[in-house]
TrEMBL record:
Keyword Amino-acid biosynthesis: no
InterPro entries attached to this UniProt entry: Acyl_CoA_acyltransferase, GNAT_dom
Keywords: Transferase
PROSITE patterns noted in UniProt: GNAT
Species the sequence originates in: Zobellia amurskyensis
N-acetyltransferase domain sequence ranges: 9-165
Keyword Nucleus annotated: no
Protein name, as recorded: N-acetyltransferase
One GO molecular-function entry: acyltransferase activity, transferring groups other than amino-acyl groups
Length: 174
């Protein structure tokens, strides 16, 4: 198995002990716009989700990993989604829960670890990311990590009473 440990963070599978962290993250209205969430999640529903989080990416077409700091504290999540082994691609998404953990290299390190895993272990040809226009920290992050802007989805997200564009990024494993 490829190493999912970086210099400052490591990635691990979700654990039952992550229930409170997941509850805080999924119910943070600050990220609902990017996650597509429209209503709060109960702890019961999230507990059921955690009980099934061990399922294989080839089965559920998604892999969600917890981003942990050096003190073993969860700070965010990184996902591979829409896993398509026939076409050797998947989407990638990341969220860091608290502002104090953002802009410190955590996201870049997590993306690098997942890209290595996706390209070397899953043998994917490409990863893509969808970033809302105006989400400058995420736009900067994906560009910095070698993702190329390849498209614009006009009026893709309806939020706060208006339509917003979403930018499509792609990273091809050469």
């Amino acid at each position: 198995m490829l190493n999912l440990k970086g210099e400052h963070i490591y990635l691990r599978a979700l654990e039952p002990s992550d229930l409170d962290f997941l509850y805080d993250l999924e119910n943070s209205t600050e990220i609902w716009e990017i996650s597509g969430t429209t209503a709060p999640y109960s702890k019961h529903v999230l507990k059921l989700y955690l009980e099934n989080a061990h399922r294989d990416i080839y089965d559920v077409k998604q892999l969600r990993l917890c981003i942990c700091d050096q003190e073993n504290f969860p700070v965010g999540l990184i996902d591979l989604f829409d896993f398509d082994p026939k076409n050797f691609r998947a989407g990638i998404g990341i969220v860091i829960l608290k502002n104090e953990n953002r802009n410190k290299g955590v996201g870049a390190e997590a993306i690098q670890l997942v890209c290595n895993y996706a390209f070397k272990t899953l043998n994917l040809r490409q990863l893509y990311a969808n970033v809302m226009e105006g989400n400058n920290p995420s736009l900067h992050l994906f560009k910095k990590m070698g993702f190329e802007e390849v498209g614009l989805k006009k009026d893709w997200i309806f939020s706060e009473g208006k339509y917003k564009n979403e930018i499509l990024f792609q990273k091809i494993n050469t």
